[in-house]
UniProtKB/TrEMBL annotation:
Gene3D superfamilies: Homeodomain-like (1.10.10.60). One of its GO terms (molecular function) is sequence-specific DNA binding. SMART domains: HTH_ARAC (SM00342). This is Helix-turn-helix transcriptional regulator. It comes from Gelidibacter salicanalis. Keywords: DNA-binding, Transcription, Transcription regulation. The keyword DNA-binding applies. Residues 182-277 form the HTH araC/xylS-type domain.
Length: 277
């Protein structure tokens, strides 16, 4: 039984996979078992059939009333439970960059303790069934706005599942993020709430300012000035909401040298002044 690397085997005509993409998968009775090395996080939305998925230390049986969210890095093999049946599903792959962007946008950045959990079982309902029906690899390759559509579909299912499963699903999503930070990210993250300027953080990264900005945007998918401001203002909001500190107590701790500038930036982001918090 050969080992297939996915999603690489689905990109024979491309140099590299995209951040988001859909693949229509069909498995027939003449291929009862398949071994897979998974290099991207993936939704497996089952439509027809049932299967047993074997991981390193566990296994899961799923039918067409269930779907799976599978963690990248899994080495697994799949076995059809109905030997004379056809197995059909929609595979929805997403990169860690897109996951990180989503979590930063919609969640509280909690730290997960779910180390090494290979999958999350999703119980299909009417909404999910309709969502699955809307996925088609052809739609997202032949459409002029394929990338924009895929991003909307990705956020749609993620938000729906966050609402459906709450904190267990959020914890699982957080567990999908690689724990090993690059030296660049380690330096940036350790100075999020300092009052260092971009030039000074760039210096710590042994980069010119222009190189730092370019590298930062590639890593975080957003300009460094906006990213740092958003992170620092969010931290300020959390400190103020705790009720023990005033704006005058914290503005320097979140990277501002001037209380007035801090207050203006805070109100622009949250719509209320620090004193109203």
């Amino acid at each position: 039984m050969p080992i297939e690397n996915i999603p690489e085997i689905y990109f024979s005509t491309k140099n590299s996979p995209e951040d988001l993409f859909v693949y229509d998968f069909k498995m027939t009775s003449d291929v009862v078992k398949s071994k897979v090395n998974l290099s991207m996080n993936m939704f497996s939305f089952l439509q027809v059939g049932k299967k047993q998925v074997h991981f390193a230390n566990t296994s899961a049986a799923v039918n067409n009333k269930q779907s799976l969210l599978l963690k990248k890095g899994n080495w697994l093999w799949t076995e059809l439970l109905d030997k004379d049946a056809v197995y059909y599903c929609k595979l929805f792959f997403f990169s860690e960059n897109k996951l990180t962007e989503f979590l930063s946008k919609y969640t509280s950045n909690i730290k997960s303790n779910q180390e090494g959990v290979p999958y999350f079982v999703i119980e299909n309902d009417e909404y999910i069934a309709a969502f699955i029906s809307s996925l088609s690899s052809k739609t997202f390759t032949d459409h002029n706005f394929s990338d924009a559509l895929l991003l909307l579909k990705f956020e749609e299912i993620m938000l729906y599942l966050l609402n459906k499963y709450g904190s267990p699903f959020e914890h699982y999503l957080q567990s999908l993020i690689s724990k090993e930070l690059s030296p660049f990210k380690s330096i940036v993250d350790s100075n999020v709430h300092s009052n260092l300027k971009l030039e000074e953080i760039a210096f710590l990264c042994h980069m010119s300012l222009s190189t730092f900005k370019r590298h930062f945007t590639n890593e975080y998918q957003v300009p460094p000035g906006k990213w740092l401001q958003d992170k620092r203002l969010q931290k300020a909001k959390e400190l103020l909401q705790a009720g023990e500190l005033k704006a005058s107590d914290i503005y320097m701790d979140v990277g501002y040298n001037n209380l007035s500038n801090f207050s203006v930036a805070f109100k622009n982001k949250f719509g209320v002044s620090p004193t109203e918090i």
